[in-house]
Amino acid sequence: MSQNASFELSLTRRISAPPERVFDAFVVGAQLSRWCAPRGMTVPKVALDPRVGQGYRLTMEARDRSTFTLTGEYRELLRPTRIAYTWQWVDDAMAALETLVLVELRPCDEGTELALTHSGFSDPAMRDAHIPGWNSSLNRLVEMLDPRGTAANLALSGDRRSTYTWSVRIALAEKGLHYEMVERAPHSAEQVRLHPFGRIPALRDGDFILFETSAIVRYLDECFPEPALMPASVRERARAEQWVSATSSYLYDAMIRRYVLQYLFPKGPGGQPDAVVIAAARAEITRYLAILDDAYGEHNAIAGETFSIADVVLVPIIDYLARAPGGNELLAAAPNVRRGLASVRLRDSFRETCPSV
Ligand SMILES: N[C@@H](CCC(=O)N[C@@H](CS)C(=O)NCC(=O)O)C(=O)O
């Protein structure tokens, strides 16, 4: 991306689709409405007449139902190489300003190289305010034209064996998303560039970098709504958040850090698991499993009737516990937790991403 003093922005994308399909995505209303808004927003209304001198009107809607309407006129339409149209916000602080979007399409090895120039901004701040929206919308365009194109935008960096990395992989698999898996160790120089605390995982979506598993899963859920990982009711959503927080605040520490990892990376005398640490962790885990067992009750999901973000974060930890020495013995007293685990183990998203440790 580059900008210059005349307050324009330029973006390029390589898309695995022929120029004709990319061109049509800009001028066919049903296609435009699938990508022409930043992630997390929808396009409930679009009307257009793709002829030079005619125009378009498009409304974007945010999750809080606020809307943003855009209108403009086609200046050039040369299928499949070039489209130019004006761009004007309606009822907005920027409403008085008419800017110009130029889209140039060239065939390349992958399919099409798209070069977009948005010019005519009156100041750099206004230009810069449009950059994240364009980046996010173009990511959606790439994905619409090539479902595998998410891999060009989405990259997960972590270690497949980490329970938190596994949780994000489950969420990605639930949503059928393609992504690049970048194997990185915690605290490696590359990881610290994405995650200032050095932990894994971190997600990159184009130019947007995010860390903390629950934030990543929530982001994916808002960007790719189907199937939903947040329950529909307010109380169940709050319950799901409660279990995500309890998992990372208490359960991970006792079950993984002080139990499973003691066996995987023994640090006790003679390179053996530290018996004192293990005994203390077992006592705590027993108490925690009783709490979880109560919470599951007769359900297979921890936060109510349906599989949610809470299961995505919790169940990899329970699975590791079950596979650790003495794990099944601990779980023997928690039949509801075992039933929840068995039900999640049947999901493709879980089986396909299950690390072999
Ligand atoms: N709160 C973080 C925790 C991430 C985390 O602790 N990941 C572990 C691997 S499962 C890690 O990076 N451990 C390295 C360390 O503890 O320094 C999240 O939710 O993503």
Structural features, described:
With 357 residues, the protein is an alpha+beta fold. The protein contains 13 helices and twelve strands. It has helices at 19-27, 29-35, 124-145, 150-153, 163-174, 189-194, 213-223, 234-264, 275-296, 309-323, 327-331, 335-345, 348-353; strands at 2-4, 8-15, 42-48, 55-61, 67-78, 82-90, 99-108, 111-119, 154-158, 180-183, 202-205, 208-211. Strands 1-2-8-7-6-5-4-3 form an eight-stranded antiparallel beta sheet, with helices on one face. Strands 10-9-11-12 form a four-stranded mixed beta sheet. α8 packs antiparallel against α9 (275-296) and α9 crosses α12 (335-345). It is elongated and about 75 Å long. The mean pLDDT is 95. Residues 162-164, 186, 199-200, 212-214, 248 line the site of glutathione.
Characteristics:
single chain; 357 residues; alpha+beta; eight-stranded antiparallel beta sheet; four-stranded mixed beta sheet; 13 helices; binds glutathione
Note the topology.
Elements: E1 2-4, E2 8-15, H1 19-27, H2 29-35, E3 42-48, E4 55-61, E5 67-78, E6 82-90, E7 99-108, E8 111-119, H3 124-145, H4 150-153, E9 154-158, H5 163-174, E10 180-183, H6 189-194, E11 202-205, E12 208-211, H7 213-223, H8 234-264, H9 275-296, H10 309-323, H11 327-331, H12 335-345, H13 348-353
Bound molecules: glutathione.
